[in-house]
Design goal:
Strand order of the largest sheet: 3-2-5-6
Mean pLDDT: 97
Radius of gyration: 17 Å
Strand content: 5-15%
Number of helices: 8
Order of helices and strands: HHEHEHHEEHEHEH
Structural class: alpha/beta
Helix content: 25-40%
């Protein structure tokens, strides 16, 4: 049984026994015992652990974890302090500065955003070293669809920041009119100039939250 440590435990209590998840669990047991897999198994559910359901104000959806040594720690786009921020994260910092004037920090750890109410959720929560998308189609997508479906039922507005094709696949689940979807291309260097830069998703998120009487997100990270 997975233990999250907040209200997600009650929300997801039936998920862990569903056939797809039991199959996924067996796959992961084999992968972690025979391959190098990221993140550390204790970090897989960090996004849910840091951002309780009741606290979710915004959701950023990534693809799958970084697949290099020491990078992934269970929060999409985030790397632990001491690890060089990857190119996509550098582009996120660039847009944040252009949008809100917030200077980039030297590290790439986004835990503060998670604690501010930003659910940093990857579509797929694990990956084999040096093999992007290696755990795609094994069941994680069903699990993360459930997360989005639960958030769609939330009675307070949530802003969904959907960056890139993988994230956009979740858009159809978000049907509750109180929520807002902000959609653009992925912040990868391959696509960022196609609409991510200049999207102003950070300020737009805060404007939406403020207009709903919700405290906006403090996007400023500390060193």
């Amino acid at each position: 049984m997975v233990h999250i440590g907040n209200d997600w435990d009650e929300i997801l209590k039936d998920e862990w026994q569903k056939p797809y998840y039991l199959k996924l669990r067996e796959f992961l047991k084999k992968e972690y015992s025979t391959q190098k897999v990221y993140p550390n198994m204790h970090d897989i559910f960090n996004a849910l652990k840091h951002t309780a359901f009741k606290d979710v104000k915004a959701v950023i959806i990534g693809q799958d974890p970084y697949h290099g040594e020491g990078q992934a720690h269970g929060l999409c786009f985030s790397v632990k302090k001491g690890v060089t921020p990857p190119p996509s994260l550098k582009n996120i910092y660039k847009e944040l500065e252009d949008d809100l004037g917030i200077k980039p920090v030297s590290h790439g750890e986004l835990t503060k955003w998670a604690d501010e109410g930003v659910l940093l959720l990857n579509n797929v929560l694990t990956v084999r070293e040096a093999c992007p998308n290696s755990h795609k189609g094994m069941g994680w997508e069903t699990f993360t669809d459930r997360i989005i479906d639960e958030l769609n039922r939330k009675t307070t507005p949530v802003v969904f920041l959907l960056w890139g094709a993988n994230a956009r696949k979740k858009a159809d689940i978000i049907t509750n009119p109180i929520h807002k979807k902000l959609i653009t291309v992925h912040p990868s260097p391959l696509s960022a100039y196609g609409g991510f830069f200049g999207s102003k998703h950070f300020s737009r998120t805060n404007e939406i939250l403020s207009s709903s009487g919700i405290t906006p997100i403090d996007w400023q990270l500390s060193e």
